[in-house]
Amino acid sequence: MIKLYGFAPSFPVNRVRLCLNAMELEYKFEITNPLAGECQTEEFLKLSPAGKVPAIDDDGFALFESNVIMKYLCRKHKSDFYPGDITAQANVDKWVDFTTIHLGNGIAKVLFNKVVAGMIDADIDEQSLKDGYAFIERFLSVIDKQLGTSTFLASNSMTIADFCLLGTIDPAEVLEIDMAQYPHVDAWRNKLMQESFYKKMHNSYGEMLEKMTAEMA
Ligand SMILES: N[C@@H](CCC(=O)N[C@@H](CS)C(=O)NCC(=O)O)C(=O)O
Predict the structure, then answer these.
(1) In principle, which of 13, 81, 94, 174 could form an S-S bond with 54, CB 3.0–4.6 Å?
(2) Are residues 198 and 96 in the same domain?
(3) Is the CB of residue 174 less than 8 Å from the CB of residue 115?
(4) Using a 6 Å cutoff on CB, does residue 104 contact ligand 1?
(5) Could you identify the atom of ligand 1 that is nearest to the CA of residue 66?
(6) Span from the CA of 53 to the centroid of ligand 1 (angstroms)
(7) How far is CA 135 from CA 132, 140, 174, in A?
(8) 23 belongs to a structural domain
(9) For residue 87, how far is its CA from the centre of ligand 1 (angstroms)?
(10) pLDDT tens, residue by residue, 144-163
(11) Phi-psi region of 59 (alpha: psi -120 to 50; beta: other; left: phi over 0)
(12) Which residue's alpha carbon is nearest to atom 10 within ligand 1?
């Protein structure tokens, strides 16, 4: 059975969880918390040499990088969530990379400064926080425009680009992103959050984080 290494607040990990759930693949979630040093063990570094989650072990085949894992799973199980047609696939790749590189970078900056810094007693970098919000505003607006033209991010069918975006934007409320500014993303997201592949992960990012923080206290 597939083993997925990661922990619940990690948005790259959650991209893979959404994909596994939507594909209805059985997997074991091996909780591995980088904030507790659990990614620096000799055993974990064999799976993921930079000590980052997510990583998977699929019956002895080890892989890291969230988007690569989703593509691997779809190819292996012949899922249309990553279409084989060359132009359809290029469209998916385009939105996966755009979401990851531009929006994801902004989310990571804000998430670190607003949530993670407090957990590990690190200083808040005000400039990084400001840059993060600026990236989010600039790039989420582009995604909003795109979602005004199609039902899902890359086309009218759901693909891994949707899992990538849904995972990335999952902490929106916790990060105080005003989703009303992005009505197409907001409507798309509210619909997908009702789906069982999302509910199987958690009811909301905020609820999950609150529960986790209470357990740590
Ligand atoms: N590009 C990677 C990013 C993974 C990543 O940054 N994971 C964070 C958690 S959200 C991590 O493991 N950080 C631990 C560290 O950097 O030591 C992916 O998409 O899988």
Answers:
(1) 13
(2) yes
(3) yes
(4) no
(5) 20
(6) 5
(7) 5, 8, 17
(8) yes
(9) 29
(10) 999 999 999 999 999 999 99
(11) left
(12) 10
